[in-house]
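User: C-alpha cells for both sequences below?

Assistant:
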Amino acid sequence: MALTVFGMTWFVGPILVPAASLILDPQWFRTLPRRPRRIAAAMAASEAMGVGSVITVAALTSLLVVAAPHGAIAASVGLVGIIAQLFFLLWLGRCVRAIIDLLLRSRIGEWPAAFQMSALLAVAFAGWVPIMAHVLPELGAGETTIVVPSMNIAVPQTIESALLFLPTGWGLAAVFAASAGGGVPGVVLPLFGLVIGGTLLRAAWISLTARALREPPARDQSHLRVRGVPVPRVIRRHTAVSAVTVRELKTWVRDPHRKLGLGHAWMTPLMMIFLVAPTNWSWALPFIGVMAAVLGAMVAVNTYSLDGTALWQLITTPGALSADVRGRQLAWLILIGGPLIAGTVVLCIISHSPFWAVALGMTLTATGTACAAAPLMSVVMPSPGRDARERVSSVQSAGNSAGAEWTVFAVVATVTAGAAALTQVLILPGIAGVFGVHGTGDTVVVALTHLLIGALFGLVALVLLSAVLRGHLERAAPTLLSAFVSKDITRLRAPKPANRGKQRR
C-alpha cells in the first residue's frame, strides 16, 4: 500500500506544481537543425535526472528487501522490478507534466487543470475530516469518546489485491509471485507490463514535446482575452490607491499565474465544503473560512516577483510604494478576503454550528493577517521567474515560491490560533467575572468577545505587518529590482559596502 501511494506522487506532483522548472526546456533547442521528434527523443535521456529519481530508487529498494530472504531468483526479480517500476513511474510523471502543460496553454484546458489542482488541494487540507468524523463522531457535542473500528487493522485482502492490480504495484506483484514460487507468467507479465507501459508513456511524452517544438515562436502567445473588468463603486478612481487597486483587479484576471491562483482560492474551499458537509463534523464547516484565508495568502505570496521589473515604476515615482501596498491589499480583500468572510457567515447560518463565533472570529484574524503577510513574504522571500513582459502562459516559469508559501501558512496559522487561545484562556474568564451572567446572556457575551477579539487581532496584524512591509520595501526596492533583473536572489543578501571613511583608512 505504501509503494502504491508513493507511486501516485509521480502522478499528483505535476498537477500540484505545474510551473516548476523543467529539467531541460524544449524551447532551448527549437532552432537546432533537426526534426522536432529527434530533438525530443534526444532530450528523453535527461528526464531521469533529478532528486525525485533518487528518492524513488531508495523507496523501491524495499522490493529487494522483501525478495532477498526467498533466494537468489526472487532477489533477481526484485532488482529487475526496481528498474522496471522506476522506468514506468518516471515516464508517468513526465507524461502527466506534458499533458498539464498542453492544457494550460489553452483557454479551455486551463480550467480542467485548475480543477484537478484544486481537488487535490482540497483533499490535502480536508481529506482527513471524514476519517476523524468516524473516529470522534460526537466531538461537536463535547464528547471525546474514540470509536475503534471493529474490523482488523490490517489492509483487507480485497484492497491489497486491488493495489497490486494497479501499475504502481506490479513490481511488488512480481516479487510476491517469485517469492511464493509461482509460475513464470505471474512473474514475467507484471514486469513486461511495466516495460511496455513505460515505453508507451515515453513515446507519448516525445510526441507531446515534439508538438511543443513545432509551434513557432510567433504563435507562442497568450490565449487570454483582455476584456473590461468591473470595478466596485466603492473605489474612487481619482486617488493613487484606487488606481493601484484597479490595476491589481485587472492583473489578477489577466496574468496567467495569478488567474490560476485565484481559481484555486475560489474552488478549493468549495470542494472542502463537499468533503466536510456529509460527515458528522458538519459543525466544522465555518472553520473552512480560516483555511480559505490561509490559501488566499499562499496564492498571493509572490505577486511582486510576478510583476518583475515593473517595480522600477514604483521606485521612480514619489509616494508610489506606499500607495502600491495599500492598493494590493485592497484588491486582495475585494477578490479573496471579502468573499471568504461572507462565505463563512453563510456557513455559520447553514450549519448551526455551536462554534460559529469562534470560527468567524478566527476567520477575521486570519483574513487581516493574510492580507498583510502575503505581500510581505513577496518582498522578504521573493522567487523571481520569467519576467511579466515575457510570460504569456502559466506553464512558463514563475519561480519556486514554496518556501514563502509555507512560511505565510505558518504565520497566519500561528497568529490565528494564538488569538483564539488567548481569547479562550485569558480574556473570556476575565469577562465572565465582570459580567457574571448566565444562560443566553453568557452565550451572547462569549460570541461577541470572540468576534471583537478576532477582528481586533486581525486589524492589529494588518496595521503592524503593513508598516513593516512599507518600511522594508522602501529600503530594499532597488536591491529587489536588481534581483528581479538578474534572477539572482543572493543579491538580497549581499554585504553592505563599507562607508567612505573606513575605505580611506
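Moving on to the next sequence.
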Amino acid sequence: MDFIPSLIDAVGVLPAIKVPDIQPDFGAPGVGAVMHLVNMAAAIATAVCLLAVVLSVILLAVGKLSERKQHIGWIVLASALGGVMLLGSATAAMTYVGGIPLF
C-alpha cells in the first residue's frame, strides 16, 4: 500500500495544464441558420422515433407475429426509444438552454 501515497506525491508535483476558456460565437454569419436547421432536423427525427415507438408497441401488443418478427419488433422498439431519448434531449437542450429557435 506504499504505492498509493507515492503516486499521489508524484502526481501532485506535475504542472497543471492550462486550458483556455473557449466561448462559442453563435453570432457569426451563417451559424445561427445552421444551428436552427440542425435543431429542426433533430426535432423531426424525434417525432419520427416517437411514431416508431408507438407503432412497434401496437404491433407487439396486437399483431400476430412470429417469434422471429417479435424479436425484430423488440429491437426496433429499443432503438426507437434510444432515439427519442437522445434526440429529444438534444433538441430540448438546444431550444431551452441554447436559445436556438425550434421552427
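User: Anything stand out in the second?

Assistant: The radius of gyration is 23 Å.
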